[in-house]
């Protein structure tokens, strides 16, 4: 089996396992969210969402060293003495740097926490809990830094399924514990207790797996390499800048909505976009699991191979994005009405805008992943710095004037003015791809799947107005709609480029030539 196919299949298995875990997590969330809303009102639930948004921001301040460590580890996969030494050196350097950055993040959380009640105009009972909870979540974010490099070792060496399975079990248990803590009256502190359980559980799992698969690993001060740290920093700093810009673009909406509109609006918006975000997260896993393979291809093989892989993945991501767009737009409003009640649905316009943003950003991220793998980080990051303030300015301005849709329109417009055109330009410059080739890989599945999707949308709309709001009926209609649109997408857009990766026993059923 060639290295290319082996890498692709490794990425595919990692993707399949992570997709399965994400789907199971989504099902658990479907069950657990109504339970959480039973013990938290809209404002309290909205505040809990903001806690995690703030934690995500704090967790991004690793200056890109986590990703840089994975990139370095992907180059040392052998079991010889040299590879073992380099792994020890990379992880020791990265872990020490991460520990220092984690301490800084924790201090920043303690300094920021007292201002939160005033920024979001919290009522007294929420304000009294908000400050200490943010301090504890800041400590949680800082300690997480220490686990990123060691966890990234499995990712870099194509052992995504191994680390992903154990992490999934710990996370799932944490979600169940959150509901239990809420039931026993812990309130917003339930999320803190659950987060620290997951932190400790993940740490124990990593130690066990590292001792099993990397018995020669040693994280020691004597392996710290200041020259290597500079290399990690030089590569990672622009990833960090772009990551911050990405957080502003994709996640600041909730912070803006909470300040400009209300915490209750944060709850409604978050529940409206919960399923869309999970679906797009599934698509993003395709790129996440392919990253180590991309790094090998772009550093060790020809640009032609990189171009072939990019066009193939772009077709896949575009087809999956449009498949998801039409299924979510068709079914999400109906599902929310059954799930938590129609008062938690923000409306069809907000849903379409939110899905438009996720599709737009997923396609941009696909191109950025290839640029990062090739080491082109500076240009992408600088454009992110331009996009972020435009996004915030437009979102706040339009949010004040036209409400919730304005926040999303601001994000869409900011991206159209910046990364949507600049990323293809960089790909054409550094990978030798023509803009016509990029457009061709996007337009065909985008238009083709959309035509079929519009038909499915019309059918679902017609059926919904006849049937009552029943969960079994919803799942039957959803399954039929999903099966029809997925079959169409596979047969006309994905079957040919991905035929080589279909296991032999499934070829006949998936209409692939044997």
TrEMBL record:
Transmembrane residue ranges: 12-32, 44-70, 90-114, 126-146, 167-185, 191-211, 232-250, 256-275, 313-329, 335-359, 380-398, 404-423, 435-461, 473-493
InterPro entries: Poly_Biosynth_Transport (IPR050833), Polysacc_synth (IPR002797)
Keyword Transmembrane part of the UniProt annotation: yes
Pfam families, alphabetized: Polysacc_synt
Topology relative to the membrane: Multi-pass membrane protein
Cellular localisation: Cell membrane
Keywords: Cell membrane, Membrane, Transmembrane, Transmembrane helix
Keyword Transferase tagged: no
Protein name as it appears in the record: Oligosaccharide flippase family protein
Species assigned in the record: Hymenobacter negativus
Lineage start: Bacteria, Pseudomonadati, Bacteroidota, Cytophagia, Cytophagales
């Amino acid at each position: 089996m060639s290295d290319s196919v082996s890498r692709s299949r490794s990425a595919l298995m990692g993707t399949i396992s992570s997709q399965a875990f994400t789907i199971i997590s989504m099902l658990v969330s479907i069950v657990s969210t109504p339970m959480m809303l039973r013990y938290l009102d809209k404002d309290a639930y909205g505040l809990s969402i903001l806690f995690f948004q703030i934690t995500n921001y704090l967790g991004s301040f690793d200056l890109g060293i986590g990703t840089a460590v994975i990139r370095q580890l992907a180059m040392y996969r052998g079991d010889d003495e040299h590879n073992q030494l380099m792994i020890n050196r990379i992880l020791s350097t990265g872990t020490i740097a991460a520990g220092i950055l984690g301490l800084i993040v924790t201090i920043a959380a303690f300094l920021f926490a007292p201002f939160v009640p005033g920024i979001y105009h919290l009522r007294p009972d929420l304000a009294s809990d908000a400050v200490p909870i943010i301090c504890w979540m800041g400590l949680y974010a800082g300690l997480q830094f220490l686990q990123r490099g060691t966890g990234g070792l499995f990712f870099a060496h194509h052992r995504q399924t191994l680390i992903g399975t154990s992490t999934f079990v710990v996370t799932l248990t944490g979600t169940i514990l959150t509901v239990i803590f809420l039931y026993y009256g812990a309130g917003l502190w339930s999320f803190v207790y659950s987060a620290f359980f997951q932190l400790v559980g993940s740490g124990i799992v990593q130690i066990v797996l590292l001792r099993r698969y990397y018995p020669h690993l040693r994280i020691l001060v004597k392996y710290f390499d200041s020259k290597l740290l500079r290399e990690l920093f030089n590569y990672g700093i622009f990833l960090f800048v772009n990551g911050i810009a990405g957080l502003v673009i994709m996640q600041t909406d909730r912070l803006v909505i909470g300040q400009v509109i209300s915490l209750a609006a944060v709850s409604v918006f978050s529940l409206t976009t919960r399923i869309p975000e999970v679906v797009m997260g599934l698509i993003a896993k395709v790129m996440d699991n392919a990253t180590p393979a991309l790094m090998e291809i772009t550093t060790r093989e020809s640009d032609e191979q990189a171009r072939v892989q990019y066009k193939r993945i772009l077709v896949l991501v575009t087809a999956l994005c449009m498949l998801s767009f039409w299924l979510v737009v068709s079914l999400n409003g109906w599902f929310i009405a059954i799930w938590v009640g129609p008062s938690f649905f923000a409306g069809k316009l907000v849903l379409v805008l939110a899905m438009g943003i996720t599709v737009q950003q997923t396609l941009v991220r696909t191109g950025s992943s290839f640029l990062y793998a090739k080491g082109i980080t500076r240009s992408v990051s600088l454009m992110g710095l331009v996009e972020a303030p435009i996004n915030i300015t437009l979102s706040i301005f339009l949010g004040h004037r036209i409400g919730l849709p304005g926040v999303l329109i601001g994000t869409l417009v900011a991206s159209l003015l910046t990364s949507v055109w600049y990323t293809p330009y960089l790909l054409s410059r550094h990978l030798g791809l023509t803009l016509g080739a990029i457009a061709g890989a996007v337009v065909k599945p985008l238009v083709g799947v959309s035509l079929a999707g519009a038909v499915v949308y019309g059918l679902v709309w017609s059926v919904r107005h006849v049937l009552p709001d029943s969960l079994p009926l919803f799942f039957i209609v959803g399954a039929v709609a999903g099966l029809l649109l997925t079959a169409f997408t596979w047969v006309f857009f994905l079957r040919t480029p991905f035929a080589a990766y279909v296991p032999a026993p499934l070829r006949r059923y998936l209409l692939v030539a044997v």
